[in-house]
Amino acid sequence: MPTGSADGRALQLGQLPEAVAGVLARLGDAGHQAALVGGSLRDLLRGSAPGDWDVATSAPPEQVAALFPGATWENPFGTVTVRATPGPVSVEVTTFRVEAGYRDQRRPDEVRWGGSLEEDLSRRDFTINAIGWIPEDLRSRRGLLVDPYDGAADLQRGVLRAVGDPDQRFSEDALRILRAVRFATRFGLELDPATEDALRRHAAAAGTLSGERVRDELLRILGADQVQAPPSRAFAMMERLGLLVVVLPELQAMRGVPQAKARPGDALDHSLRTADALPAGDPYLRLFGLLHDLGKASTLGDGHFIGHEVVGAQMVEAILRRLHVPRVEVARGRLLVRHHMFAYAGEWTDAAVRRFIRRVGASSLADLFALRRADDVASGVEEPQSGGLDELRARVGVELATSPLSAGQLAVRGDDLINELGVRPGPIVGRLLAELLEAVLENPALNERDALLALAHASLARGPEATTGGAGTHRPARSRP
C-alpha cells in the first residue's frame, strides 16, 4: 500500500512493478515528463493491484514508439502500447493532450498534443481517475502526487465526483453515465450530490450509445467479483437514476410484477438476486440470469406466468442482438432462458433423462444447472433431497458416461444406410438417423449395427420411400455376403 502523504505532495509507491518503473525511467532519461495516471494510480492508492498500467507523457506518440521497439500505435488518441519487461506487463503510454468539442457525445472533435499534466488530468471523467504521480527517485519509488481535483481525498471519503462541471463531463461522452454507476458500485462510493443530479439530467443520453459500448460496460459491471459490488447494487442505482429504463427498458418493466416467492419483492428484485447468485467469472451467464424472467411482464394471468420462458427467450435474443453480443452467446442465452423452467421429478425414466440431455444439449447442462441453482437462491427455496437438482445432475452424469446421446454415437452412419439399404443421399438419410437415435435414447441396448439396420429397413418398408424408385430416394439394397 502507498506510504507517505496523499495530499498532493510526497508519495512512495512501493507496489510499482519494475517493468512499469522501467517505462517511466526511459521516458525521463529521454528528456520527457512522464507520470503514472488513471486507474492504475487509483488502484494503488486504494491498496489493490492494478489490472492495467497507464502512463501520461509529454513525448509525442512517434517519439514514444521510437523509444520502445515493438510498441504499437494504432489509434488517433496518442496511446502507444508498450510491452514492458521484465514480465508480461503491458503499459499504455498516452501523450498529454487537450480535447475540444464532443458533437457525437463520444469522441472529441479535436485532439491536440501538448499542454501539461494538469491540463491532461482536467479532461478526465472523475476525480478518482484524475490523479498523477511524477517519479523523483524510481529506485526508492518516491515521487510527487499531482492531484488538482482532490481525487485522493475523494477516495478516502468514499465519494465519486465528476471533474469540474458534471454537466459538461456527461455531455462530452454519454458513456460516462454508465461508468459512474460502475465505479460507484465497484469501489463502494457514494455519488457526490451535484454529480448525481447531473446523472439524472443526462440519463436519457445513454440511449444514444451504441449497443457495443453499452454491452461492454454492462459486462464490466456484471464481471465485478468484489463482495461489495454485486450486480444488484449497480442495477438498483441505474433504476434510481432513471438509467435502467433507457438502457434495458424490458428489465425496468419487471418492476411491480408480483412474485409468489419465499423471499419478498417483485420480479425485478428476483431477477437482480438471480444475477447476484451466479459466478462473476462468467458475466454473460450473469446477464442471462438478470434477463431470464423477462417474459413474466407480458404473460401474467391469474397468478401464473404460462409460457413466460418462451416469450422470454425471444425477448432475450432481441436484446442480445441489440447489444451486438456474439452469436454464440445469443444462442446460449436464448437456450438457457427457454429451458430454465424444466420440471424434474424422481419418477423420470432413464430414457426421459436421456431425452432431457438431448433436448438441452450436453454442453449447456452445467450452465442450465447453475442458472436453476441461482433461481432457487433468489426465490428462497431449496431443491428437495429426492427428485431435486442434485439428483438430476447425478443421473445426467451417469447417462453422459454410459449412453449414446447423439447421432454421431450410433453404431451406424449415413454411409451404412446408403450402402446397405440402398438409400440415396438426401433428407431421407437424416430422417432415418433421427429415428434410430430416438430408438436408442429409449433403449441403449439397440445401439448395435445389425439391430439399427433392421430398424431402418423396417422404417423404409412403412414409408412412401418403400417403392423402388419412388421419389428417387430409394434403390434396391445391396445383397449382403
**Runs with pLDDT <50, length 5+?**
465-481
Estimate nothing, just give the exact number of structural domains. 4
Oligomeric assembly: single chain
CATH T-level fold name of the largest domain: Beta Polymerase, domain 2
Tags for this model:
alpha+beta, Beta Polymerase, domain 2, Hydrophobic Seed Protein, Hypothetical protein af1432, 4 domains, 8-stranded mixed sheet, 23 helices, elongated, disordered C terminus
Describe the structure.
The protein is an alpha+beta fold and 481 residues long. The chain folds into four domains: 3-157, Beta Polymerase, domain 2; 158-219 and 226-242, Hydrophobic Seed Protein; 248-402, Orthogonal Bundle (Hypothetical protein af1432); 407-472. It contains 23 helices and 14 strands. It has helices at 18-29, 38-46, 61-67, 117-122, 151-157, 166-172, 175-186, 193-202, 211-222, 231-240, 244-247, 249-252, 267-276, 283-291, 296-299, 308-322, 327-339, 350-360, 365-379, 389-402, 414-421, 427-442, 449-462; strands at residues 3-4, 10-12, 34-37, 53-57, 79-84, 89-95, 97-100, 110-113, 132-137, 142-146, 159-160, 190-191, 300-301, 304-305. The chain has an eight-stranded mixed beta sheet. Strands 7-8 form a two-stranded antiparallel sheet. The protein is elongated and about 90 Å long. The relative contact order is 0.06.
What would a concise description of this structure say?
About 50% of the residues lie in helices and about 10% in strands.
Task: Note the topology.
Elements: E1 3-4, E2 10-12, H1 18-29, E3 34-37, H2 38-46, E4 53-57, H3 61-67, E5 79-84, E6 89-95, E7 97-100, E8 110-113, H4 117-122, E9 132-137, E10 142-146, H5 151-157, E11 159-160, H6 166-172, H7 175-186, E12 190-191, H8 193-202, H9 211-222, H10 231-240, H11 244-247, H12 249-252, H13 267-276, H14 283-291, H15 296-299, E13 300-301, E14 304-305, H16 308-322, H17 327-339, H18 350-360, H19 365-379, H20 389-402, H21 414-421, H22 427-442, H23 449-462
Parallel strand pairs: 4-6, 11-12
Antiparallel strand pairs: 1-2, 2-10, 3-4, 3-9, 5-6, 7-8, 9-10, 13-14
Helix pairs in contact: 6-8, 7-9, 7-10, 9-14, 10-13, 13-14, 13-19, 14-17, 16-17, 18-20, 22-23
